[in-house]
Amino acid sequence: GAEQRRPAPDTLKSTLTLRDPPAGRWLRCDAANVRGNGSSAPVRVALTAVPTRGPSPGLVGGVVGVVALICGAAATCVYITLRQKRDRRRLHCAAGLQGLVAGEPGSLDPTLPADEQAELLPYEARWEFPREDLILGRQLGAGAFGVVMKAEARGIVDDEDISTVAVKMVKRGADDAYLRALASELKILVHLGRHLNVVNLLGACTGRIMERELLVIVEYCPYGNLHNYLLRHRDGFVDQVDPRTGRMDATRGAAQLAAAEAAARRARMLLSSGESAYSMGGGSQQGSGDSGTMTAVTYCPTGGNCTSGGSSYDSGGAAVPLSPLPTDDSSSSGGPQPLWRTLYRCDTRAPSRVLCTADLLSWAYQVACGMQYLAQRKVLHGDLAARNVLLARDGIVKICDFGLARSMYKSDTYKKKGDGPLPIKWMALESIRDRIFSTQSDVWSFGVVMWELFSLGATPYPGMQPSEEFYNKLLSGYRMEHPPYAPRTVYDLMSACWETDPRRRPTFETLASEIGELLDNSTRERFERLIAYEQQKGGVGGECDYLAMLGSPDYGALTSPEEHVYVNTPQAMEGSRPMAPEPNTSTNPDPQPSTDYLNMSRPSTPGTSQVSFC
């Protein structure tokens, strides 16, 4: 269309806009109106490009370049910042891991027990064992964070070229809290000394602690833990308790035991004639009924040739599973196990033997002796149960996994997760209610262990779940009934262990003495000689007996009003320790711990039964 405008009264001007006009053509304009018509002179069409609105290519390129430069600089700054943080974190972690081994003995508090400050104990170089002389074999047991491997160690025992040992380690990718817990156990074992009824330390490999590999080498117990052993051998049990008197009678079942022993002896002879010698990576050892082969493997805690699927592989492809083993615990385990427990399985093909009451008494006596030694050395167990007692050769039992429970209770990781199962049925009243763990709470747990033994591995408090109702029943005086195979005297000792007032419970020295009186003289004297020999063979070594210098885990000492608690000190100078002692101004022996400690809330008033179980 034409746009019209009047520049003057006698003139009419029209503008015609042509879309895509033919370039180079001649055009003429013809006009007509009432006054007439006319034609213009021919006009040649010449096209002129009209500039479009928008940035030029050069401007666009410049802007893109500036933006790319800014983004690159920002990415570089972020990368450098993250790398610096990662490097600082690595240095901090490395310093912390290295400190696990070095310890800080100058900061030990003589008023606190060892389990409260095990990380500060020094490691002694005499326990370091060459990693190249240790060949790992198959898995013996596993827990939520720990793995135990069977291994051979060359020259770790003075009178043996090659020794079968057990090696404890932390699973690949486990939290630092678990590595610290294992390091704390190592420190306690270093300073504990030897005892017949404790799983003794043989050595450790700490050279790769910066790579999160810590190997703790301990004695090998081929028959696994007592709980599983009782379940496997409960059939055919010979009850030697006279039902009329409730006392032990060694003559009961003598013929049955003699016949069973003769059959077992013949089976061992047949087994040893064909399979007694077994190879472990080049060495050989004669076993009493044990058989099998072991392939050397390399444990990789952070990668290397290891797969991510829970196994460790050597160059030859021999796999070692690093996941928990299936066990026969489902029928009487009482639910999931605490995170720190390592469930040992039996590792022998020796013929089954018939159990009798004398065996149960012997094991109870030995556990009492082992716990007596721990109490004398001021070491708290914290999780005494039949699963934490291992059976070695010749009927010797050994206590293991002590100190791990308290390490995990104090762990921030354990508190934050809030879902770790706890051994409530083995815990003393004050441990459930007030978070107080002591030698006396270990005595309570020992009473439960005796009940496990004389019930042949039954679950404590059968048919009851660890709940608030369960706790209230204990508080009101309920205790487990007489187990079916316990002499009356033994049940009386159990009941004494379950006294509500910790100070009224018997000591482990008293328990060992009274249970020992139930054994025949020859058996008791044999154990006494073995215990004395073991302690002479490897007593407390090192330049200083640190455990003797520390506080006792006795209940009276832990609840003393004069005890010190540690609080933050805002005036602390840079580089100094962030914790300092301050006198406790409260008479409450439990100075307000975290409410999520032990996965349960604290009662509003000490002594009340308002305990919440998660």
Automatic annotation (TrEMBL):
GO molecular-function term, one example from the UniProt record: transmembrane receptor protein tyrosine kinase activity
Pfam families: PK_Tyr_Ser-Thr (PF07714)
Polar residues bias (residue ranges): 583-614
Enzyme class: transferase
Gene Ontology terms describing biological process: cell surface receptor protein tyrosine kinase signaling pathway
Coiled coil start-end: none
RNA-binding in keyword set: no
Segments traversing the membrane: 59-82
GO CC terms: plasma membrane; receptor complex
InterPro entries: Kinase-like_dom_sf, Prot_kinase_dom, Protein_kinase_ATP_BS, RTK, Ser-Thr/Tyr_kinase_cat_dom, Tyr_kinase_AS, Tyr_kinase_rcpt_3_CS
Binding site for ATP: K168
Entry superkingdom: Eukaryota
Domain Protein kinase: 134-519
Ranges where the record places region Disordered: 317-336, 572-614
Reaction(s) catalysed (UniProt annotation): L-tyrosyl-[protein] + ATP = O-phospho-L-tyrosyl-[protein] + ADP + H(+)
Designated name of the protein: receptor protein-tyrosine kinase
Gene label: Pvr
Keyword vocabulary terms for this entry: ATP-binding, Kinase, Membrane, Nucleotide-binding, Phosphoprotein, Receptor, Transferase, Transmembrane, Transmembrane helix, Tyrosine-protein kinase
Subcellular location: Membrane
UniProt-listed Enzyme Commission number(s): 2.7.10.1
Protein's membrane topology: Single-pass membrane protein
